[in-house]
Amino acid sequence: MSNKFSLLVIGETGCGKSTLINTITNYFLNGEIPDKIKVSIGTKFINSNQNVKSSENDSKDRTKSQTDLCNEYSFKKDSKEFVFIDTPGLSDTRGIKQDDINIGKIIDAAESCPSLSALLIVVNGTVPRMTINLQNVITRLRGSIPDSLLNNVFIVFTNCLSHTRNFDINSIEINVNPEYVFHMNNTAFSTDPKLWDPTSVESLKLEFKLSFQTLDRILECVTKMSSVSTKDFGEMKAHRHNIKSILHKAKTDIGNLQKLQDSLSQYQHQLEKANNDKESFKNYTTKNTIEKYELKDAPYHSTLCSTCDHVCHNKCGLEELSTKGDNAFIGCVAMSGTNNCKICPSKCLYNVHYHGRKTMVKVNKTVEQELTDMKEKFLKSSELSSEFSGKILNLDSAKKLASATLNKMTDDIVKSCKELKKICSGFNLVDELQITLNQMEMEAKNSTSFDARKSADEMIRTIREICDKLNKEESLKTKKKNITIDESKIKNDNSKKQYVDSAQQKQDSNPTKDSNQQQANLNGGSLKTLKCPSCKNNFDFNKDKYEELKKLGQLIKCKSCHTSKNSNSNVTDKLAKQNDPKSSDKKLNCPTCKNDFHINKDKFRDLAKNGQTIICKSCKSNKQNDPDSSDKKLNCPTCKKDFHMNKDKFKDLAKNGQTIICKSCKSNKQVDSNSNVTDKLAKQNDPKSSDKKLNCPTCKNDFQINKDKFKDLAKNGQTIICKSCKSNKQNDQKSNDKKLNCPKCKKDFQIDKDKFKQLASNGQTIICKSCISSKK
């Protein structure tokens, strides 16, 4: 057996992987609290003091993965070498593209090792429930761990001990041996050493001792188990790359196919007025054209985006690069020296770009030419060739051809997925694509660019089409097992009980004095004896804090009474409060630090009306102290209430001379602007819907209108346009229409100004078109 053991460390962004690596460093290098603490990865309070190469980002930003590269930390003990491979965090706030990049880096790091001894999955044990981000991490992990490594999976819960863990271990959906489940809590790396008093130091020393005992058990388990070859990671990488390439090509093809289907649907509406389906279809397919984009071979290389299927820099001046996402792409004209492309509709990162001898060409083809091309390109199998061997003579056969084409395009994807599931049974492409869809929809809602939102909506529609087809493949579905891990078999350290017992005895001997003395030491003040107004008992309290609270006029109680009044810190009470319909508080998740917090419901409504971003008190305090805050405080001219707006966005709107109002007033003004993509599609496809889908003759965009309103306007012979164009028309001072009220039916209608003058000069009574037609 080899004396070298490699352990891959993976987990969610901010779960405590870096803290674990620092604890491991102290374990092997005999670190001690408080003066001999070893730090491999710098924290907010302690800089790195070990000569270890690291790619850590700003340690103060907890929402972003601190590790951008896979770093190896090698230690020796008793003639054995242990190599810990720290990997980038998953569910990074930089988005789904960064997650895909990080998954690739993790698989590359695993493949670079000849063998792996263990896979350490690090989970924040204080998380009480399954969040969207954590579900994303677990889904991606299950689809990235080959079956050959499942017996070597360890779970390390951070920020907790076994008796304080909130996380449900069964929600990970990986059947882990209970002996391979561990707990650690090291607050030394998340607190300021300047505030450590003697009591704090003793507590931190005990945490170190418990963690070192846990590491003893981890290494003992690792040395006893057999290492696993990483060749499966290489095969998984090849299959994933193949699937990604096919999806990249399919996104362009399916986008063009959807345009064809839209064209056929448009023809279907026109068909109601036609008598002869075949003759009408022939005329339609030869006269009507569709616009599409095709990648054509070129004698030169260009910079292309694999996400947007867009040529970002035609005839790129950089030396041709063979690696996708190479750092050299930052120097491309499309990036302008930044990390994001300035040409992409979605402003993608440089690392999703590549060089290819292709160029994107806009092609206008008749529907007949497109149907012919589709037959030649996709329907080469004998079965489909025979079915569509003749000309496409009617709408029904054309729609069947489009449906058959889409089915054929998924065959290669399904084939690669089946091969991948042989190696990794937890892989589920539909689940991964669904996560991608959810995150894309969230990003699209937050986007302020109309072009970016439109591009994202088209991409969402394409991916959902692929998902729907793949979802029908039973062989690709992962059968969920009811996994139950016997937590009674999870081993606990003996010293944990000693630690709890000794702490309890110390608290029982003099609970109030010890806790208050510790608090006084931390605050650097002395104690003052007070009498509790509730229980009438004497207690000690920090003098400085007493003076502050006295100035504010707050009632000061002993810790026991104060705790009983504010007992909502308990998990059970929290849940009861959340489920209480009479509770005046609302539970939210802070968009900055991603932690849950409570806010008064009335206050929440006021802030939401003003369109303010609602964050927790801690982040709000940090924001107020930050002179570089990117928000600007304004007063809404409509509702007269204050609201906040991003400074850059404010400058853009101010340049355009737009009236800047709060989100609440904006939503009241334009109710339809924030309509959800999914609801729109569902509404369009609902036969019982009271709305009718039309195409605006001015801007050529689709819009919805109430069927009854449509009939009224059609009777009056008015040109029906979308709200946006209607608004522009009303604001246009050069508008040639005049609004009148019909003296007969008492309804408003529009008439050309010149025609109005002519009729008025002749002394004619001017009535609406509907009344004119009924008169005839």
From TrEMBL:
InterPro entries: G_AIG1 (IPR006703), Multihaem_cyt_sf (IPR036280), P-loop_NTPase (IPR027417). It comes from Dictyostelium discoideum. Pfam families: AIG1. This is AIG1-type G domain-containing protein. The keyword Metal-binding does not apply. Residues 574-586, 680-692 have a biased composition (Basic and acidic residues). Keywords: Coiled coil, Nucleotide-binding. Residues 501-525, 563-572, 669-678 have a biased composition (Polar residues). Residues 257-284 form a coiled coil. Residues 494-525, 563-586, 669-692 are annotated as: Disordered. It comes from the Eukaryota. PANTHER family: AIG1-TYPE G DOMAIN-CONTAINING PROTEIN, G DOMAIN-CONTAINING PROTEIN.
